[in-house]
Amino acid sequence: MKKISILTAMFLFATCIIFSCTKETVNPPSDPCTGVVISINPSQTAPTTGQSNGSITVTATPNGTYTYSINNGAYQSSNIFNNLAIGTYSIMAKNADGCTSASTSVTLSATNPCNGVNIILTPTTTFADVCPTASNGSITLTASGSSGYTFSKDGGTTYQASNVFSNLAAGNYPVIVKDVNGCTKSQSVTVSANPGGVKFNLVRNLMIAKCGSCHFNGGSLGGVNFDDKCNIVTKWDRINTRCVIEGTMPQAGPLSTSEKQIITDWVNAGHRYID
Ligand code: HEC
After folding, report:
1. Are the C-beta atoms of 140 and 163 separated by less than 8 Å?
2. Which ligand 1 atom is the nearest neighbour of the CA of 248?
3. Residue 181: closest CA among 145, 153, 206
4. Residue 161 — φ and ψ, nearest 5°?
5. pLDDT over threshold 90, residue 233
6. Which residue, 6, 11, 103, 221, shows the most beta carbons closer than 10 Å to its own?
7. Is the pLDDT reported for residue 30 higher than 80?
8. What is the pLDDT of residues 12-22, one digit of tens each?
9. pLDDT tens digits, residue range 237-261?
10. What separation in angstroms does the CA of 273 have from each of 169, 196, 198?
């Protein structure tokens, strides 16, 4: 038996030399990754500013079983990476044969926190006084649609927590309301000069009609000009005396009873600009 075994071995050895049966073991094994191209196609959900709530979902091709790595970390079977903050990440996929894709860079940018935020700004104002002119107007800003507001009346140079601006002169104010995330709504708000009371304006209109160019449009006969509304307030007593009590004005002709009554009503109401 032993002889036969040795002879068999020798025979096989000789056969091997003849047919080069050792060749297979001398050459290196063929690389299973040769010609394999794995592409990865990441999709992403952006994180909110300051939070780690973004994610990257990886799809690898061609179809197969893959594991996935982020930033050269350990490979995992899930193709989803969660809890990611803003930043750039390198993603790789590896198939069952250990062949890997190229590293693919994915950048997560913050979502704009103002997307979809629609702040509604509703201003209300009070007049600035006239005669005497005073910086006593106000703007009250009511905002809705978001939260955590601060308010500016100077185009955003300064902001305050209160939604009320007081002690304002008549004029236009570039108002801005800003919410907790810095989302803003702008609007130009006008603080108007007090337009004057009803009785005052009836008197003024009467005077424009009756006292004409002698005292308006630059006219200042007797040293009196009424273009400035406040001069009417200042001269209330002389207007009343000349037009109602004495009836010596206008020089173009006397006022009717009802015209005198307009002056009388204003005088009795307090003869102020706001009456
Ligand atoms: C046609 C021109 C003319 C018209 C119209 C006229 N005035 Fe005069 N006003 C004068 C002249 C001139 C004087 C200066 C002489 C005088 O006092 O009578 C004067 C003086 C005045 C004075 C200053 C003197 C004072 O008594 O204090 C007042 C106030 C005045 N006018 C009010 C009026 C009013 C109000 C009207 C309209 C309802 C009016 N005038 C219409 C020509 C006019």
Report:
1. yes
2. 18
3. 145
4. -75, -30
5. yes
6. 103
7. yes
8. 555 545 555 55
9. 999 999 999 998 888 788 999 999 9
10. 17, 5, 9
152: nearest Cα among 123, 117, 118: 123
Which amino acid is located at 129 in the chain?
Answer: D
Torsion sign, CA atoms 193, 199, 200, 202: positive
CB of 92 closer than 8 Å to CB of 103: yes
150: which 2 tokens? Answer: 């601060």
pLDDT class for 84, splitting at 50, 70, 90?
very high
Residue 235 CB less than 6 A away from ligand 1: yes
Is the Cβ–Cβ distance between 73 and 103 less than 8 Å? no
Ligand 1 near 250 CB (within 6 A): yes
Question: Is the C-beta atom of 230 inside 6 A of ligand 1?
Answer: no
Query: What's the CA gap between 265 and 263, in Å, rounded?
Result: 5
